Amino acid sequence: MSSFRLALRVLRVDRRTRTSAILTGIGVAIATGLVLLLVSLPFATEARGDRSMWQQPGYGSEGAGTPSMWLANTEDYAQGKQITRVDVAALGDAGSIELPPGVDKMPAPGETLLSPALAEMADGAPGSQLADRYGEQVGAIGEDALKYPDQLVALVGHAPDDMPARAFEQPGFVIGGGQQDGLLQLLAGVGVVVLLVPSLVLVASSSRLIAARRERRLAALRLAGATPKQVISMVTAETAIAAVGGALLGAAVSPLLHMLATYVPWDGGTWLSTDFQLPLAVAIPIVVAMPALVLLAAVLGLRRVMATPLGATGSHQQKPLHWWRLLSLPLAGLFFAFMVSTANDEMGMLLVLLGLAMIVGSAALVGPWVTSAIGGVFTRVWRKPSVLLAGRRLREDPRGAYRASAGVVLAVFTGSMALTLMPSFESQAGSSSPYQDSVLYLSADGQRGEQIAEETNAALERYGQQERAVAIPQVVLNNEIGGETAQVMDCEQAEKLVQLDMSGACGGAPAIYSPYPMDLNGVTVAAEFDQQGAPLPEGTPVHQIRQDTDQLNSVTIIDPGLVPASVESNYVTVAVPTTPENKEVVRTALASAAGGEMIESRDALLASQDDQLADLRRVTVIGLVAASVLSGCSAAISTAGSVMDRRRTFGALIAAGTPVKVLAKALRTEAAMPALVATIGAGAVGVLVGMGLYSLVEDEASVVLTPWLAAPVVLGAGVAVLAASVCTPALNRVRAEPLAEE
């Protein structure tokens, strides 16, 4: 009989083997589906970039051909949503410019093309709140030109001499050439490491349901004359049925996972269904590698049967674990730290992920040793039979005992790492805008700024608004060692516009207002840095003003009466105060006058940060939930498998009168105590790894540690205890037939 037919026969007649195979297949399917999804994420961002590259200036394309157009990209906001505004102007024949897919025509001056979502938003609001910013709509932007389905995009046409100062001269639209999102690439790599391992632990736990029975069966075959090659082929066939079936199932359901992933927002919006198409050159090796890993683990697990079949059938005591296992964790940590400190390219990031994988893998060496040490303590200090039974189990089979908590340990490690990164990222959020939250402002050169202010005020008057734009010149206060910029406005204007507490400072002689003491000895007023300026009037007062927020970069105010007439400012800030009721109208008035210049506000500066933090929180929650579910399932299956492995022992104890309650308590103790100790260690290591990963993103910022770091340890121990509760139903089955031979 062939090995494959023998495996099919065993699966058909043995219910426990069949159950183990089904669970193994499910575990392989989960692992395969997760890896296919996570690996596809960077490719999905690249597909997004291919569609939306035309929206960006073509930096680096100066020598690619004769310039045919100007292009500028800015961010606009309406109803709390970000709008991508692309201003273009043809330098010659607009028909000769190659248009990106999804854009049907080049807008002429005064015309605009809107994406469907933006057009719907504009139709649902008065023109003074949105549509008047862009001109006459003459077409729509198709889905092929959008980063994500609901992206808000306006393509606005101009004359060449009417383009904003930030415009870039280029030979045409940049079509294709999108780049992968570096942050999502890093998160996907971390996800592969921290979710693949719990999935494989689930597979290993499923196979342990019949470990003792399979080992005895194979040992009997060896003693009956079966060669090692025949035994290996039997195990390979039996495992391959489950592993290959699971890998194919995972590949089959991966499109469903990809479809679900399209509903998870990232970087502003959701995804197109075609974004997650993984190249076959990447997908096929993954599908092949997953069952190959399972088969390799199954074959390596046959070493004892091959070497000592009598020892396998007799269940001889295993050799004690050596202390050198403890060295694996610090060595992996040193490698990870070195890679983090030297990573500066894509290969460096791969080595960082390799270091992370080594740290995760070292748990398989350190965990059993710690489990054995805990068992030794239990056997020496026990006061109750359940503690003695738990200690003997931990001491005699630390690898099997640790397997029940391995997934939980990895989930705690992941949670601690995430709870180190998230508060640290959130601590960096903030804005150093010198203007109050309600003020909209933009920067322009002197003459252009004055023109924008005039046109804005004309539009505000037409819309019936009381607010008015103010053109604020910028000068430089120079001295012998350097200089600093100062905004030219009187005290009353500063009180309305900037984030300085001007109360009590107004009403006196013209002065300089600064958040710190200032020595005016040798200070001159100039239009530029390192420029010989005009001296300040003798006895110019300096008022030290308190800032309203500690996130503000220092801003200095100089009264217009102190600026010499010979100093003409080269740069102007146009600022307009708003109210919650008229904010959209004021922005429309300013945007229509600015013609594509970047309009800033503190809310706008914080919006992108809030979106990024929301993306990170969302991905973190999804990852932690997946890791927790996988770890809980593997712990429950491992505990049930532990009972099945020791059915003879438990049956004999029950037949001798040992209460099931005592045995259940012993099983919960042997599951919970190693998990508690290991999760504390995993939490500490997760914090250190999180600090290392954070340094890749923020070089100089400090890590923020919060009391929430204890949550993964507490929850991990709770999950281990809860999963161990499945031992009671398994023991009740043994009690029903305590001396049954399976």
How would you characterize the overall build of this protein?
It comes from Prauserella cavernicola. Its main location: membrane. It is found in: Cell membrane. Residues 192-302, 623-734 form the ABC3 transporter permease C-terminal domain. The chain is an alpha+beta fold and 742 residues long. It folds into four domains: 1-56 and 177-316, no CATH class; 58-170, no CATH class; 323-431 and 603-742, no CATH class; 439-600, no CATH class. It is built from 21 helices and 17 strands. The chain has helices spanning 3-13, 15-52, 116-123, 182-207, 211-223, 228-261, 280-300, 303-307, 309-314, 328-342, 346-381, 385-396, 398-427, 446-462, 491-497, 583-594, 602-645, 647-655, 660-697, 710-724, 727-736; strands at 69-78, 81-90, 111-114, 136-140, 153-157, 168-170, 439-445, 470-479, 482-488, 500-501, 512-514, 524-526, 534-535, 542-544, 546-547, 557-558, 571-577. The strands form three sheets. Strands 7, 8, 9, 11, 12, 13, 14, 16 and 17 form a nine-stranded mixed beta sheet that branches. Helix 1 (3-13) crosses helix 2 (15-52) and helix 19 runs antiparallel to helix 21. It starts with a helix and ends in a 6-residue tail after the last helix. The mean pLDDT is 83.
